[in-house]
Amino acid sequence: MAYAFWFNQATKVVILYGLAYLTGLWVQKANIKVNYTRKINHFALFFLPYVLMRLNPYEPTMATTLAGSLIGTLTLAIYVSPVRNQYPIIAAMFTSFDRPEDRPFTLFWLSTQVIASYAVIIFLAVFVLNERSYEFVFIPIFINGVGDGLAEPIGIRFGKHRYQTRALFTKKTYTRSLEGSACVFITSIIAILLFWPLFEQAQFIAALLIIPVVMTVAEAFSPHSWDSPCLFLVGGLSLAGILHYV
Fold first, then answer.
1. Helices (H), the chain
2. What is the pTM of this model?
3. pLDDT in tens, 69-94
4. How do the domains of the chain map onto residue ranges?
């Protein structure tokens, strides 16, 4: 496996841990809402790998994809309660994404979401989108990274029209807003426009009409704190359908 891959992975882990610590201190010392610091880490998690790839490129393979998925999942192991309760630094890092309304499921939902997200991306890349069209998998990734990343802070700050959603393994309901969901819709349009060279003309029009709607609905009905795998799966399958039938 390429040296550049391991260097990028190590750099990513160090930066993400450092950012989690700084934003965790922000929550602890400045009373900043966790909903905001969580999304700062969300953006870093999704876009840092692409920045590192541009700065230090390597040829991605199935081996690097699987290894990166495993590393991404294992980085969460330090947040288990026996470890974070013993080390204040790790406790501060955990604070950066530990929303009070998510307790006691914070780490469970986060870790299962990460595992499911990697599994869906690998499934789409290997079995759904062939070699000619694998680049389309970056469309739902972009929509999730930007649209879903903005949905929560926009909803908290400007959300006036709210609705309820459920979460895994609990009867508690959680609040989302139409204003937050609009972020997913608008980002979906932008994503299709950015990736338009990948489409044939009819496919581009179909994607522009279909993808923003299905991604917004998927985000609205996905379980709380489990948006990513749902958006990846719905977006990837919708794109595959457009490529196949249009």
1. 3-30, 34-55, 62-74, 81-84, 88-95, 106-123, 138-142, 149-158, 178-194, 201-221, 227-245
2. 0.88
3. 899 999 999 999 999 999 999 999 99
4. 1-98, 100-246
